[in-house]
Amino acid sequence: MSNDQAKGSVLIVGAGPVGQLAALMLSQHGVSPMLIDKRLATLTAPKAHAVNARTLEICESLGVSAEKLRDIGASANDGGHVRFMGTLTGVEFGALPYERQDDAAFESTPFPLSNIPQPLFEEELSKAIRHKSDIQFERGVECLSLEDTGDAVIATLYTAATDETREFSFDYVIAADGAGSGIRQALAIEMDGPEVLSDHLMIHFSADLRHLTEGRRGLLYFLFEPGVGGALIAYDQAKTWVLMHSWNPATEKLEDYDDAKCLALIEQAVGQPLETATIENVSPWRMSAQIAQQYRKGRIFLAGDAAHRFPPTGGLGLNTGAGDVQNLTWKLAAVLQGNAGTDLLSTYESERRPVAAINSEQSLTNSAKIFDLIIALHGTDPEKTAGRYAAVAADPAAHPEVAAAVAAQVPHFDSFALQLGYRYDSAAIHEPAPIPAIEDVSNYQPSWDAGAHFPHRWVRRDGEKLPLQQLLPANWFSLLLGPQAVWQASGCHINPVHFGNDYEDTEAWSSLTGLADTGALLIRPDGHIAARFDSVDAAAVKTVMDKLLARSH
């Protein structure tokens, strides 16, 4: 065993999307991290696919082109709907738009949600990391143990290729090592919520099914014919599909799901034999709804699936993880660079855990509503399921309860308020506004309140139309100044952006923000409004920033 000085002061364990985003963010903030993953390569299974508006905005701020990511994803024509079917080629009971992918979404975000298979998303992040010389990224490296000494974290890392064990010293560690997080377990951090809701197999297969879905293109096909069930996910209609199939690991063996059995299940779900289909892999997964009781223990922080495990109904897991590390990384950098006191780090859990709780609850609600549709189609008497389903399938229009059950699924597939509307209430927000309950997850209401994320605006600078976020650097605080605000930045490091001088908006400052023209908004690196000022001067801003950043001097 050798003792080495780590290149970075932060270790990130786990190189999924959340870990890679964390590395890029720390680099942007001037911190050189070490990113490790025990896997030698990115997994090929598509897994997550919904990369929502806020996550795309985050990527754009990191120099990972959101437009390119959207181009990689499924087109809105192919991935714009979810359909409720008997089988893929059978009767359709209804369809709904899948999230906001239409032109109206551009009023609230420059980058509406896109459906990108997780391996492709990870590869784009990896490309960006390869251009960052300050990020030390090593695959095939496993974290064996972490010892928090109070002043540092001693990490014991094992490299399989060289059969070498080394010790590194880090200031902090981010555990982004997934739902079964070994680090979370080693820290003895308990989870709140049900650990087992159901068990499923993800059967990943390659096939071109476009000729079967013509006129009924979609991303998700929920299947309800008795004896079929499950869901088909079209990551790419021409080649990449997944069948989600329920199974019982207590009575079944994974090895029994050979290619022949999986192909039979796929053909049953499709509703007819397939000329060509290749089974790529079969992997079990367990649906849970759990949130870590603590997001931090000493100098070690949990992020992404290590901190929360949601049902996939809603596509909130990966995106919540992106918000986690956006929140955490600027705070770690501020502390490491001497710009903040260590108490700032306590606001990570107090800000992000409530967001996870809301998202988990909504994911559970979405999952439960699917069962309402099953009851509408199958009835409540198991002995009469076949007859009930046959009657509904023969004439769906004669059964209005089915249409009502389909309409009730809208929050499952339109969660704009959860994507963009989450707020914070912590010591890192000056006089935060009360956080309103989200009555309708589809109804996003932009807000300029302290604690909210500043709303998207299409503005003009030098005649060019661009999103306001492009004018607000993501590596430190910005001050959005009203048209008559006077700013002299004496001894106060900040990025001033002047309404009327640096950009033009179609609406008046006061009608947008509710502030006088002499006012200003202090914007955190993660885009959340840290403070509102009716009038602004450097001394007042410095006093507020000292408080927000837990600076004692």
Question: Could you describe the 3D structure shown?
Answer:
The chain has 553 residues and is an alpha/beta fold. It folds into three domains: 2-73 and 116-192 and 290-360, FAD/NAD(P)-binding domain (3-Layer(bba) Sandwich); 75-109 and 198-287 and 379-414, D-Amino Acid Oxidase, Chain A, domain 2; 426-548, Glutaredoxin (3-Layer(aba) Sandwich), CATH 3.40.30. 29% of the residues lie in helices and 24% in strands. The protein is built from 16 helices and 28 strands. The longest helix has 32 residues, at 347-378.
CATH class of the largest domain: Alpha Beta
- Strand neighbour order, sheet with most strands: 6-5-15-16-17-14-18
Strand content: 15-25%
Ranges where pLDDT stays below 50 over 5 or more residues in a row are none
- Gyration radius from CA atoms, angstroms: 25 Å
Highlighted features:
553 residues; alpha/beta; FAD/NAD(P)-binding domain; D-Amino Acid Oxidase, Chain A, domain 2; Glutaredoxin; 3 domains; six-stranded mixed β-sheet; 24% strand
